[in-house]
Amino acid sequence: MDKKKAISQLLTTLEIEALLRESKLEEAYTQLNALLEREPGNAYGWYLLGGIYRRQQLWGEAINAYNKAKMIDPDGPAAVAIEAIYEILNFRNTDLMNP
User: Fold this and answer.
1) Residue 16: which of 60, 68, 51 has the closest Cα?
2) CB–CB of 47/66 below 8 Å?
3) Of 28, 92, 15, 18, nearest to 54 (Cα)?
4) Where are the domains of the chain?
5) Contact 20, 28 (CB under 8 A)
6) What is the pTM of this model?
7) What is the CATH number of domain 3-93?
8) What CA–CA distance (Å, rounded) separates 84 from 80?
9) What is the DSSP code string of the chain?
10) Position 94 confidence tier, pLDDT thresholds 50, 70, 90
């Protein structure tokens, strides 16, 4: 990857992260889709997309996005995120249930 492209990718990622911090999920989603169309091998982009889906409780889509990130970068943060979703989905505490 040339230096200009790397800098552009970093700036785009920073912009998306800023949108996520501001809870501007639609804008972040739009920018992420554009980024991933240009760079489908961007593991961090797939990880961020999984985070958007997770915030919306779209668990299947989140897992799919995290799995794409994990396939590209097995040591990246997506592996932990997938496990967190499985823990959320498998959480059962009968003491908290109403009779």
Assistant:
1) 51
2) yes
3) 28
4) 3-93
5) yes
6) 0.81
7) 1.25.40.10
8) 6
9) --HHHHHHHHHHHHHHHHHHHTT-HHHHHHHHHHHHHH-TT-HHHHHHHHHHHHHTT-HHHHHHHHHHHHHH-TTSTHHHHHHHHHHHHH---GGGS--
10) very low
